């Protein structure tokens, strides 16, 4: 109880300091809006956020794709994955729904990737949809073939990081600068990185849900018969 | 190879190797050794460029700060890269022997995941040391933290898992403190570039709070007293090569960012009070860590507490190097000590791993006669201890000597006394181990055989820790390139 | 004016929900509130003219993180149940 | 954008950060702690985005937006990693909390799991 009180006081002090700090910020911070917009025509995309993510500060994103890969390597090193407990395999209606929804989600992921160049969207949002589709597929007991193909999964997971690193190396060769795209071709390079990243992000997010490496991920035999008689 | 290529390769090669080591399990060791070669060559090239032409800056994407991200190699960054490369190479050699000589069924699994995680750690460290952008540093910190935590958990035992999870919580919360600070700095100064911040930063409520948040987070990650509580269990229960990486390099990543923040980006906020506060925490760390080290029953815990203590010395750099008079002496002394400690600590943890595998335990009181069965390891431990205590001609001595000189020149007697007391305490806990190790026993037990490479790498690092002492002049010259203006160093 | 009132209410609910989602006694309800919190924060992103972030928050921040935590909760309950059963068999 | 008071959002961000931090310190359950870290993160992101909305110009500053996108992805990775680790801890100790006492004295070798199976009293 004493501890809680102490920590409560500490937290209130922290809150006071933070409030003081944010209220002392300039009312109109300069930011980098102007600079971002000024260079937008050279960036190869028209969505400023995508321009920051994959051009101005593309190097952050390289490391971020590394973080995603590292997370899945870490999770795989920790435990074996488990198939979702409440799977929907014995629900025919949901199954047929999934047959429609899954392709639609994948299509939507591709769409988000494509419009990311000039409107809200991009590889991360698209990858999240792809990951969601993968989660639904797992819940429906689908995608077993893919999930048991460990080599394929590993290849898909590292694709984003490797393509990104390769683009870094190629730009070094072409312009002598890391991620410095040759003039006028930014859009193409960005699309190449994003397409590879989309697959890796989608797989990573979906496989995080599995919570471990997919060895022995054959789903437990459908629980229907024993439980019905019990 | 241009210096731009060198910078690019320092980041891209370990990253690509990490991805490949995951995609092709079983190729890990080859990839790590290949990375060591590429990174080594890049560092040689970059050092030449820095010594000849001063600080090397690479503008990623060609934009330049503040819109883009700058990568920068100065003397300090190069020293850190070198230490990392040396230890990374040693671990690349040591790890396979370590994972294959253990007697548990999970060892192949551990080895398979060790390599990509280790290479990610190396990527994160190289990226961290080269970054000149405080948001980019946040990303490298996360990369570093994830890799470090997972490597600790790789040991698989209950104590290691609990320690890893606690470490993860501390690390994540600390990262968020740091990130909030970055947000406030950006709101105030409209840039996250270290170099441009120095010109724009004026003391005010926002920056004080921002810097306090970032410093708090980094202190927790660097395990400075009193935020050291997570370190001993994590470092003592990790696999030996991982313990070495964590104690030698990972905690120093956060310390490095603290140096960059206070000495380069916000020298305007570096008041004497702040400097003395850091020094005070460092002093408490030295005393508390050393006493704890004396009390530990297990060798790995002793070494881990010794890390808590030795990190304290690094923070003495704040009160001593912030002075214009003799500041650079303390700066170079502290950083040479950092290198000395990194090599010595690696040697010690590797030795402890050898003892664990050979004797099956690391209880200090049962180490009698270990010299008989592991002569090379015992010798390595002794040499590393020499450098840790700071006896000549080791690099530990060179570092402490410079720190002492600076403190004497500035008349800061408290720190003089503290450095000496800390050395005596270090001598005491090193002797505690050695006195057992060198005790002769009538019937030495036959230990499990361990691969020779495990002993020789430990010895190599111990020798490096001593031998670096002879290169301390050269290191100081290197450190002069791009040294902070605060201490009258040459501005780039 | 209307929008200012909306902001006040939105932020008040966000802060309260954040508190409840971390301190609700019932862990399941806490998780549900946590997911709802993510959705409301996505609304805040829209108010702050950050549609890119709103999309990511709804999909990742609330959706996927929520799903991860929910499935972890189910898994933990199962494990705890198993652990509790073995403990009851212990004489201690 | 005159009809949004950004200071309100900044303060709400600070509040979320502190609520998350306080809960991280006082809550013992691992899931709650993981959620607390996420709430802290949301607070930080709120500060970033509110700052971006304040800058002059036709659109909000895209740089903090991109930073927050990075942050969100890092957060979900952290959550996934933390959950996997928490599950291992639960499997090894039978507890969904981190004990305060066990590490200092813990010997790394062969402590039987059963000796640590005592559980803390459930809170009412």
If you had to describe this structure to a student in words, what would you say it looks like?
Chain A has 230 residues and is mainly α. Chain A is built from ten helices and no strands. In chain A, helix 3 packs across helix 4, helix 4 (58-78) runs parallel beside helix 9 and helix 8 (150-175) packs antiparallel against helix 9. Chain A is globular, with a radius of gyration of 23 Å. Chain B has a domain at 273-487. Chain B is globular, with a radius of gyration of 21 Å. Chain C has one domain (2-89). The radius of gyration of chain C is 18 Å and the shape is elongated. By secondary structure, chain D is mainly alpha-helical. The longest helix of chain D has 32 residues, at 62-93. In chain D, 66% of the residues lie in helices and 0% in strands. Chain D is built from four helices and no strands. Classes of the chains: A mainly alpha (230), B mainly alpha (492), C mainly alpha (92), D mainly alpha (124). Chains in contact: A-B, A-C, A-D, B-D, C-D. At the A-B interface, helix 1, helix 2, helix 4 and helix 8 of A face helix 1, helix 4, helix 5, helix 6 and helix 8 of B.
Q: Tell me the strand percentage band of chain D.
A: under 5%
* Helix-strand makeup class of chain C: mainly alpha
**How would you spell out the order of helices and strands of chain D?**
HHHH
Q: Specify the CATH class of chain D.
A: Mainly Alpha
How many independent structural domains of chain D?
A: 1
Number of helices of chain C: 3
Instruction: Provide a count of the helices of chain D.
Output: 4
User: Structural class given helices, strands, pairing of chain D?
Assistant: mainly alpha
Work out the largest interface and the residue count of each chain: A-B, 51 and 56 residues
**What is the mean predicted local confidence, pLDDT of chain D?**
82
Overall, the morphology of chain D is: elongated
- Helix-residue proportion of chain D: 55-70%
Largest sheet geometry of chain C: none
């Amino acid at each position: 109880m004493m501890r809680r009180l102490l920590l409560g006081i500490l937290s209130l002090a922290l809150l006071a300091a933070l409030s003081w700090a944010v209220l002392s910020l300039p009312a109109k911070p300069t930011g980098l809006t102007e600079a971002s917009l000024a260079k937008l025509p050279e960036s190869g995309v028209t969505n400023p956020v995508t321009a920051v993510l994959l051009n101005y500060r593309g190097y952050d994103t390289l490391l971020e794709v590394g973080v995603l890969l590292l997370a899945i390597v870490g999770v795989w090193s920790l435990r074996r994955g488990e198939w979702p407990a409440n799977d929907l395999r014995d629900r025919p209606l949901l199954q047929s729904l999934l047959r429609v929804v899954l392709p639609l989600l994948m299509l939507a992921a591709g769409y988000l990737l494509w419009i990311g160049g000039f409107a809200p969207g991009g590889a991360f949002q698209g990858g999240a949809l792809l990951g969601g589709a993968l989660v639904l597929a797992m819940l429906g007991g689908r995608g077993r073939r893919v999930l048991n193909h460990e080599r394929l999964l590993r290849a898909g997971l590292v694709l984003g990081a490797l393509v990104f690193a390769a683009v870094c190396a190629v730009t070094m060769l072409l312009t002598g600068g890391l991620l410095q795209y040759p003039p006028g071709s930014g859009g193409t390079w960005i699309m190449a990185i994003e397409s590879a990243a989309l697959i890796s992000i989608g797989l990573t997010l979906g496989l995080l849900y599995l919570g471990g490496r997919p060895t022995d991920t054959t789903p437990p035999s459908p629980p229907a018969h024993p439980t019905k008689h019990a | 190879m241009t210096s731009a290529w060198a910078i690019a390769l320092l980041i891209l090669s370990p990253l690509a190797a990490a991805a490949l080591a995951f995609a092709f399990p079983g190729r890990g060791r080859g990839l790590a050794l290949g990375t060591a070669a590429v990174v080594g060559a890049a560092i040689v090239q970059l050092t030449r460029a820095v010594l000849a032409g001063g600080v090397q800056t690479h503008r990623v994407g060609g934009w330049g700060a503040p819109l883009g991200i700058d990568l920068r190699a100065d003397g300090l960054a190069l020293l850190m890269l070198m230490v990392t490369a040396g230890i990374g190479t040693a671990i690349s050699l040591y790890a396979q022997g370590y994972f294959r000589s253990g007697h548990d069924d999970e060892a192949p699994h551990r080895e398979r995941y060790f390599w990509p995680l280790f290479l990610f750690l190396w990527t994160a460290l190289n990226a961290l040391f080269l970054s000149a952008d405080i948001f980019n540093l946040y990303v490298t910190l996360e990369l570093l933290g994830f890799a470090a935590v997972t490597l600790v958990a790789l040991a698989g035992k209950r104590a290691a898992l609990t320690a890893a999870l606690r470490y993860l919580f501390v690390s994540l919360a600390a990262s968020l403190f740091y990130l909030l600070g970055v947000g406030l700095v950006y709101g105030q100064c409209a840039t996250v570039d270290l170099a441009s911040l120095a010109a724009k930063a004026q003391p005010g409520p926002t920056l004080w709070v921002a810097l306090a948040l970032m410093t708090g987070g980094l202190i927790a990650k660097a395990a400075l007293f009193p935020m050291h509580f997570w370190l001993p269990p994590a470092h003592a229960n990790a696999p030996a090569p991982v313990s070495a990486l964590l104690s030698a390099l990972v905690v120093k990543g956060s310390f490095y960012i603290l140096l960059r923040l206070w000495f380069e980006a916000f020298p305007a906020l570096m008041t004497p009070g702040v400097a003395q506060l850091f020094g005070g925490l460092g002093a408490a760390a030295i005393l508390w860590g050393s006493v704890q080290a004396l009390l530990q029953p297990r060798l790995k815990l002793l070494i881990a507490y010794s890390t808590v203590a030795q990190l304290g010395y690094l923070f003495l750099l704040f009160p001593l190097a912030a002075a214009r008079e003799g500041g650079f002496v303390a700066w170079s002394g502290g950083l040479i000590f950092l290198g000395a400690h990194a090599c010595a600590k690696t040697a010690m943890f590797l030795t402890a791993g050898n003892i664990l595998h050979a004797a099956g335990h690391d209880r200090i009181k049962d180490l009698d006669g270990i010299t008989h069965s592991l002569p090379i390891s015992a010798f390595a431990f002794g040499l590393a201890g020499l450098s840790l205590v700071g006896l000549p001609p080791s690099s530990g001595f060179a570092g402490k000597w410079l720190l002492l000189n600076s403190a004497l020149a500035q008349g800061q007697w408290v720190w003089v006394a503290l450095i000496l007391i800390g050395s005596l305490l270090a001598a005491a806990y090193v002797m505690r181990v050695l006195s057992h190790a060198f005790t002769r026993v009538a019937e030495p037990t036959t230990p499990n055989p361990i691969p020779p490479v495990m002993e020789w790498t430990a010895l190599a690092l111990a020798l490096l820790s001593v031998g670096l002492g002879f290169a301390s002049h050269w290191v100081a010259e290197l450190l002069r390139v791009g040294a902070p203006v605060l201490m009258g160093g040459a501005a780039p | 004016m209307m929008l200012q009132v909306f902001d006040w209410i939105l932020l008040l609910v966000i802060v309260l929900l954040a508190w409840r989602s971390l301190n609700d006694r019932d862990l399941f309800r806490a998780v549900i509130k946590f997911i709802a919190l993510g959705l409301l924060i996505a609304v805040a992103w829209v108010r702050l003219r950050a549609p890119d972030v709103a999309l990511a928050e709804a999909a990742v921040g609330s959706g996927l993180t929520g799903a991860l935590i929910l499935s972890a909760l189910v898994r933990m309950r199962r494990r705890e149940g198993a652990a509790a059963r073995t403990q009851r068999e212990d004489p201690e | 954008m005159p009809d949004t008071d950004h200071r309100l959002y900044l303060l709400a961000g600070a509040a979320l950060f502190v609520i998350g931090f306080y809960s991280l310190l006082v809550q013992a359950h691992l899931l709650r702690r993981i959620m607390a870290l996420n709430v802290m993160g949301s607070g930080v992101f709120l500060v970033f985005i509110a700052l971006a909305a304040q800058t002059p110009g036709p659109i909000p500053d895209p740089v903090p937006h991109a930073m927050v996108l990075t942050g969100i992805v890092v957060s979900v990775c952290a959550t996934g990693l933390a959950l996997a680790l928490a599950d291992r801890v639960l499997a090894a100790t039978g507890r969904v909390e981190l004990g305060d006492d066990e590490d200092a004295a813990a010997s790394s070798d062969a402590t039987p799991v059963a000796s640590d199976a005592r559980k803390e009293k459930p809170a009412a």
